[in-house]
Amino acid sequence: MTEPTVGPPSGRTRVRRGADNADYDPDVIRAVLDAGLVAHVGVGTDQGPIVVPMAYGRSDDELFLHGAVANAALRAAEGVDSCATVTIVDGVVIARAPFHNTMRYRSVVVRGVPRRLEGADKVAALKAVTDHVVPNWDTGRAPTDNELRATLVLALPLAESSAKIRAGGPNDEPDDLDGPHWAGALPIDRRWALPDPADDLPTGVAVPPAVAAVVGHTLR
Fold this sequence. Notes:
The protein has helices at about 25-35, 70-75, 120-135, 145-150, 210, and strands at about 20-25, 40-45, 50-60, 60-70, 80-95, 100-110, 115, 150-155, 160-165, 185. With about 220 residues, the chain is an alpha+beta fold. It has one domain: Roll (Pnp Oxidase, Chain A), CATH 2.30.110.10. Strands 1, 2, 3, 4, 5, 6, 7, 8, 9 and 10 form a 10-stranded antiparallel sheet that branches. A hairpin with a 7-residue loop joins strand 5 (about 80-95) and strand 6. The radius of gyration is 20 Å and the shape is globular. The two termini are about 25 Å apart.
């Protein structure tokens, strides 16, 4: 087993299963978060635990989560120990024995207590969420006061976080290596396609350069 060069920030963030795939380097964790698009946020509520997918953003060592003020999961997460995970699937690994099939993936688990953002910090976090997906905050209409009041934004610190990354091919049993069964991987090529204009878009409204620039690019 290869020991990570940086240890886990806490006992509850230590990766135990598949520990050789663990990475606690903050730069690696930030890189995975910057490459992902959706975080699954888990929290306990009065009606039981719930996990909700959310768009997110990052600045320095905080993860930004947002939704409607009426969002029960976000309201429950404020000031309460919560968990967010981000997973990127880079391919499917096919082993000689299907029991050993797995995936190429990059994932991060973040645990901590989110805090509510207000004022300029809230607007900056919303910009980070928007531009994390596609950078069009500065080329679209600015949010209204009513829209901002209707939106809840939380900041989750990255102090307790870990990454788990798997690349490469299958780990087959030695007795299977000379057998007749195929083994390898099916990589997943994630690329942005051409923009699909809205049905009601007026003639002559051009695609913003920042949006057009991502066309054909591989998602990180």
